[in-house]
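Why should sequence recovery work at all? Because a backbone constrains its sequence more than one might expect. Tight turns favour small or flexible residues, buried strands favour hydrophobic ones, and helices have their own preferences. The token representation captures these environments compactly. In the example below, the structure is given first.
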């Protein structure tokens, strides 16, 4: 068992290259859908973040919301973060063909036009424009020493 009782098979991982269709639908990788089917349901929440989209299974999103709601909205940074993160959040459902419909506003936020990448990130999934994803990986790879303390803390 891994973090908080989740087995290593119940986390989203890997890079998957796809196309978004003309209606704004993407097909989720079978591995991701297996995790939804086994540990969640077909409901998910998508929001934009830093030039890409973040996808959460509904229970993971609900847990995150609970944590956010414990913060005082009197604090400006709390209001601003919630406005940025939550105001664009959209509820979606995986259909029987493993597809989700990305609303136009979120497609615009993440520059999703044709080639995309879905990246498993443990308890969430990122959806990227393929060129932006590859540029981000390249930048991170060139600056990997920035993460050395974090990597060392993992015991690697």
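From this structural description, the recovered sequence reads:
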């Amino acid at each position: 068992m891994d973090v908080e009782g989740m087995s290593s098979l119940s986390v989203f991982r890997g890079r998957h290259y796809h196309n978004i269709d003309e209606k704004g639908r993407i097909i989720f990788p079978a591995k991701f859908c297996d995790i939804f089917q086994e540990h969640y349901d077909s409901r998910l929440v998508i929001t934009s973040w830093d030039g890409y989209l973040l996808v959460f299974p509904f229970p993971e999103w609900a847990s995150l919301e609970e944590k956010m709601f414990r913060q005082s909205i009197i604090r400006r940074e709390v209001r601003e973060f919630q406005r940025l993160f939550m105001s664009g959040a959209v509820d979606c459902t995986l259909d029987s063909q493993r597809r989700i419909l990305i609303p136009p506003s979120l497609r615009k936020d993440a520059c999703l036009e044709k080639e995309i990448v879905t990246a498993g990130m443990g308890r969430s999934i990122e959806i990227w424009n393929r060129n932006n994803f590859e540029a981000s990986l390249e930048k991170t790879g060139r600056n990997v020493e920035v993460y050395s303390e974090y990597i060392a803390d993992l015991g690697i």
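A few observations help interpret the result. Strands lie at 12-19, 25-27, 43-49, 52-57, 90-93, 99-101, 115-122, 125-129.
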